[in-house]
């Protein structure tokens, strides 16, 4: 017999997992410092088990429908307000074939305009962020004041039809939430707060979720050859963590993660991953000290092996993590968070606001995601912004870095241990688009609970594409 065949040994499958692991609410109720009531809500809602049509992720026609029927109707995160603190500061937001100027006004309010000269259409500004005393088109010099009023036209004698009342820069709806500036192309859209629904009050209920108390350390942009929705999917469930992020298996939960959708809320959902409890897949079970050590390696590698990382008598891993995380925040940023619960300091808690905005409320992952479509269905732009608390005067916003394909997100120092995790995610994503197109069933299978947030936003997307939600006049 061929010796190569004789040597083949297929590993046994792990035991069938037919019992759901401990729930986040039960873990939170044991914490020494109580979690906020908002985190103790658990919706347990489901949306069935129907397969998902894979072509939603690669069909040019579907992509075109999104551009025509969804993107023009939704509130979109366009700028971080503290990037444009002074009158005349301008941020440029480009998405889905459009370009928008977000401009700080003399009275400190913010206006948004189409970034298109009313002469022959050049973009008025091109840098991501810049300061302008006036909005002068670099092509022929048509000029507007920062409030959008027409200021000057070259050879006015030759433009008898161009007057201040005919050539104001067209304004775009613009509102702010928690320091984030959103725009909406629908003039008659309902307010951002109405669109966000209960997400607003949930965030207001926890003082530490106030992003006015944070500054933007870095924005990291990674173009990826994958559909924007497949990219977002990778960051709104934790089922993939055991296989994709093997180094995180012992330090935190994965399939214990709680997922919340609300039946009357089409635009937001959330998830909460408990740290300090190892993945139930781990066999043999790690010791509590191994769980703490694993988490320290990712969160504060400089503390690895330090005596303070040893569990104290009677201390649980989550109690040790609370103690160590508040110490690290004091050391790194001078902020005293010693009275804050471990759920704030250590657990990653993520909301997503339809269609593509992902703010993490806690400090467990102090970031915000934005998933933008690329030039076609097969490309997207994945952006991660890090927001940190500060003490005293607000530090200036940090740099924007573009990490191109072939470069590693693990090489961006501001991302810390998160960089490796994001890089692992990107490596999956680069194999997604081809894989979905290779499907013979054209059906994707979603879990009933852990991937319910994916199903939820796809259902909302369908409502925009069908016209059921177009102006989001939510009753
Ligand atoms: S295109 Fe702007 S001034 Fe001509
Ligand atoms: Fe991941």
From TrEMBL:
Keywords: 2Fe-2S, Iron, Iron-sulfur, Metal-binding, Oxidoreductase. Residues 75-183 form the Rieske domain. Pfam families: Rieske, Ring_hydroxyl_A. The keyword Iron applies. Its cofactor is Fe cation. PANTHER family: CHOLINE MONOOXYGENASE, CHLOROPLASTIC. This is Phenylpropionate dioxygenase-like ring-hydroxylating dioxygenase large terminal subunit.
């Amino acid at each position: 017999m061929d010796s190569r065949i004789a040597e083949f040994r297929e590993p046994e499958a792990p035991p069938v997992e037919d019992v759901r692991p401990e729930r986040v609410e039960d873990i939170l109720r044991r914490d020494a410092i109580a979690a906020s009531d908002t985190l103790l809500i658990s919706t347990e809602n489901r949306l069935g088990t129907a397969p998902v049509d894979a072509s939603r992720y690669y069909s040019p026609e579907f992509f075109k429908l999104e551009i025509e029927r969804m993107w023009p109707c939704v509130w979109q995160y366009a700028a971080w307000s503290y990037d444009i603190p002074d009158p005349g500061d301008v941020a440029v937001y480009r998405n889905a074939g459009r370009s928008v100027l977000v401009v700080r006004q003399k009275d400190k309010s913010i206006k948004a305009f189409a970034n298109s000269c009313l002469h022959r259409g050049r973009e008025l500004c091109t840098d991501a962020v810049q300061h302008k005393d006036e909005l002068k088109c670099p092509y022929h010099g048509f000029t507007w004041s920062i409030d959008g009023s027409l200021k000057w036209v070259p050879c006015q004698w030759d433009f008898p039809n161009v007057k201040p009342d005919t050539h104001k820069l067209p304004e775009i709806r613009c509102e702010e939430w928690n320091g984030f500036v959103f725009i909406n192309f629908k003039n008659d859209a309902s307010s951002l707060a109405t669109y966000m629904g209960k997400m607003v009050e949930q965030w207001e209920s926890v003082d530490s979720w106030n992003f006015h108390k944070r500054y933007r350390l870095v924005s990291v942009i990674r173009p990826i050859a994958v559909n924007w929705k497949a990219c977002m999917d990778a960051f709104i469930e934790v089922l993939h963590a055991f296989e994709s992020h093997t180094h995180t298996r012992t330090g935190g939960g994965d399939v214990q993660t709680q997922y919340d959708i609300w039946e009357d809320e089409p635009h937001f959902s959330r998830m909460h991953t408990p740290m300090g409890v190892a993945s139930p897949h781990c066999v043999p079970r790690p010791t509590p000290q191994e769980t703490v050590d694993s988490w320290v390696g990712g969160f504060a590698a400089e503390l690895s092996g330090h005596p303070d990382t040893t569990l104290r008598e009677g201390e649980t891993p989550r109690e040790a993590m609370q103690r160590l995380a508040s110490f690290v925040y004091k050391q790194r940023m001078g902020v005293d968070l010693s009275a804050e619960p471990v759920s704030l300091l250590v657990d990653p808690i993520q909301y997503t606001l339809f269609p593509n905005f992902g703010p993490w409320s806690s400090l467990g992952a102090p970031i915000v995601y934005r998933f933008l479509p690329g030039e076609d269905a097969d490309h997207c732009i994945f952006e991660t912004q890090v927001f940190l608390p500060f003490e005293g005067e607000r530090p200036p916003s940090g740099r924007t870095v573009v990490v191109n394909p072939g470069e590693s997100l693990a090489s961006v120092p501001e991302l810390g241990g998160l960089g490796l995790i994001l890089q692992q995610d990107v490596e999956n994503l680069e194999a997604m688009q081809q894989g979905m197109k290779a499907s013979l069933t054209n059906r994707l299978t979603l879990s009933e609970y852990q991937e319910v947030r994916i199903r939820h936003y796809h259902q909302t997307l369908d409502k925009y594409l069908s016209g059921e939600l177009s102006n989001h006049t939510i009753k």
